[in-house]
Sequence to fold (74 residues):
Amino acid sequence: MPYTRKFELNTIELELVENALRGELNKAQSLKEGGHDNPKQNTRDKAAALLDLLGSLHNQKNWYRPKNRTYISG
Fold:
């Protein structure tokens, strides 16, 4: 049976996933800096993988931009 290629998440669910990934990224970075038992290369690889995943999620978003008036970010 093939893997599911399409997932449907609402904005709240996607925000939960992103926050969990950022928490894991912070944990990996603090382990790297803290000099714990984990080898630095493993934490560096994990941090890189988490950043890649967060970037992939970011790039798949459809950003809202009003069509009938001037867009002002922020």
